[in-house]
Amino acid sequence: MKNFTLLIFVLLFAACMASADVAFYTDATLFDALYPGLTVEDYSGTIVPPDGVQPAPGPFNSLTNNACFTPGAIVDGITFDNLEGNNNVVLTPPYLGVTSVTVGPNNLTDNGEFSFTVPVNAFGVEIVMPMATGSVYIEVFGTGGSLGTTSSAGTLAGVFWGVYSDEEIVRIEFIEPVTTGELFANARFGAALALENSTWGSIKTVF
């Protein structure tokens, strides 16, 4: 009986220590179909006029009051900021050819981060690089630390990237290794149900 109890304890401990199941997506249509009803922030509430560019101190969230946003212009629960602590920036169409309002670090060499104050396990965004096609390294964090890493391309037209985790996501870092500069558009986020087993295996990356 003692050995059986020890075995149960070991199995329970291993289950608790198991890493999160994380799925990454490059197809916006599939992502939106799998996780309907997420909150969308397209940053269209900006006070930057059309065909404009405006730097301003971060963070960008529902409390922001600066040359880019007034309080309440961004939905509650999501924050974008510059990881280096420098200014953020807003570009409005058609400046540099962008087709949606974009936010990002003002310096081309800086990196960005989305963080959340509401429960989130699904997040998607378009990665926009007006200067040149490039790539970003991405790391997803939960309450206990890193949930996984990946990378994505970025283009002028925007490249969709999304993530689902069965553990809560608290922040996501985007590290751009060269100086093409990364911007972001049309973010969606929120709590979502797990994928059905019938579709999980074909689109899931496990860490």
Quick check: average pLDDT?
87
Shape: globular
Strand order of the largest sheet: 2-13-8-11-1-14
Terminus-to-terminus distance:
35 Å
What is the beta-strand fraction? 35-45%
Instruction: Name the poorly predicted regions.
Output: 1-18, 195-207
**Count of DSSP E strands?**
14
* The top level CATH class name: Mainly Beta
Alpha plus pi helix count:
3
Structural class by secondary-structure content: mainly beta
Strand-and-helix sequence, N→C? Answer: HEHEEEEEEEEEEEEHE
Gyration radius from CA atoms, angstroms: 19 Å
Summarize it.
The chain is built from 3 helices and 14 strands. The chain is mostly beta strands and 207 residues long.
Describe the structure.
This protein has 3 helices and 14 strands. It is mainly β. The chain has one domain (20-206): Jelly Rolls, CATH 2.60.120. The strands form 3 sheets. The chain has a 6-stranded antiparallel sheet, covered by helices on one side. The longest helix is centred in the N-terminal third of the chain and has 16 residues, at 2-17. It is globular.
